[in-house]
Amino acid sequence: MRVKKTGAAKADGVEARGYYRYTGRRMVMEYIEQPNLPEGEVGLAVVDGRIDRRSEDTLRALGIGLIRLRPHPGLYEAVSCHPDMMLHHIGGNVIVYAPGTDAAAVSRLEAYGFRMIKGESVLTPEYPHDIAYNVARVGKWYFHNLKYTDPVIKAYMDHLGIEPVHVEQGYAKCSILPVDGNSVITTDVGIERAARKKGIDVLRLECGDSIRLPGLDHGFIGGSCGMIRLLRHDIRHCLRCQRQRRQTQGLRSNALVPF
Question: How confident is the model at residue 40 (pLDDT cuts 50, 70, 90)?
Answer without folding.
Answer: confident
